[in-house]
Design brief:
The chain is α+β, with helices and mostly antiparallel strands and 280 residues long. A 4-stranded antiparallel sheet has the order 3-4-2-5. Strands 1-6 form a two-stranded antiparallel ribbon. Helix 5 packs antiparallel against helix 6 (230-254). Helix content is 54%, strand content 16%. It has helices at residues 10-45, 91-103, 127-141, 170-199, 207-221, 230-254, 261-278; strands spanning 68-75, 78-88, 109-110, 117-124, 153-159, 162-169. The chain has 3 domains: 21-59; 68-77 and 160-278; 78-157, Alpha-Beta Plaits.
Length: 280
């Protein structure tokens, strides 16, 4: 007898094929999801603490291919004693007195008005050093630049701490942070140098701080600041340039060239004026 082959209904065959395709697609999607999940999780776990978790490794918000970082740039507060020669409502008169002092070999600088324009001839870390410097200044200008009966006034100035939070390209922020960190010790070395100079104690060597600041300043000038930090950059560069000049002058005095003293102290007063203005 001839056997008859029973054929499967077409509807059932189509449904089985569709189910098979669905299962294959589902398995593929689960596998892809698993691999993607592992990739994202590993990228998050591999980031340093505090780093943003959004985006893929190497992504930066600026889109410039550089890493963006945030840092707090700070400089400690300090106190100086200023020796005042005169005070005027007119800046022209104050400038004339400063020039007359410089003509006598005495440092002089007209600091920011408060509201008077005051002429100073020195800033020292201690009252004792300020008293000693004032004695020498009076011997040079009393009866010529100022009336013989006039006295010099010595007052303390509290220069506030500077603290600025900056965010930008890692290379720039690192250069700015390094420059300010070099400025702090150099500033205190400079204060110590002038105190030792007028008190005639063992001189403070400013040569190493001078090199450090000059190098940090050069590195900072070599990087372009982001647009949002250009004003901060300009202020920091101006302060560092003044500090570098003051250190160079003090270094010359340390090496035996006393003629550089008035110029170096004048530059130091300019620096203190810049730093004092940061806190206003």
């Amino acid at each position: 007898m001839r056997r008859t082959r029973m054929s499967r209904p077409k509807g059932i065959s189509s449904r089985l094929s569709a189910l098979f395709v669905f299962v294959l697609v589902a398995v593929a999607l689960v596998g892809a999801g698993y691999l993607l999940g592992r990739f994202v999780l590993s990228s998050i776990l591999s980031r340093p603490p505090g780093a943003p978790v959004s985006g893929l490794p190497g992504e930066n918000k600026a889109g410039s291919g550089s890493e963006t970082v945030t840092a707090t740039i700070s400089l400690d507060a300090f106190t100086v004693y200023r020796i005042q020669v005169g005070a005027f409502s007119s800046k022209d008169n104050a400038t004339k007195l400063a020039q007359a002092c410089l003509g006598k070999g005495v440092p002089a600088y007209v600091m920011a008005p408060d509201p008077l324009h005051k002429v100073y001839c020195g800033v020292l870390a201690s009252r004792q050093a300020a008293d000693k410097m004032a004695e020498g200044v009076m011997a040079k200008i009393s009866g010529t630049v100022i009336p013989a009966e006039d006295k010099l006034y010595i007052g303390a100035l509290e220069v506030p701490a500077v603290q600025v939070r900056v965010a930008g390209d890692k290379k720039y922020v690192s250069a700015l942070d390094a420059a300010v960190k070099k400025a702090g010790p150099a500033l205190h070395a400079l204060l110590g140098f002038w105190d030792s100079y007028y008190l005639k104690t063992a001189p403070v060597d400013v040569r190493s701080p001078a090199r450090d600041v000059a190098s940090a300043l050069e590195a900072l000038k070599a990087v372009e600041p982001p647009e949002s930090l250009k004003s901060t950059h300009s202020a920091c560069v101006a302060a560092l340039e003044s500090l570098s000049k003051a250190l160079a002058g003090a270094e010359a005095v340390y090496g035996g060239d006393a003629s550089k003293g008035p110029e170096a102290m004048t530059e130091f007063m300019k620096l203190v004026d810049i730093l004092a203005s940061f806190g206003k």
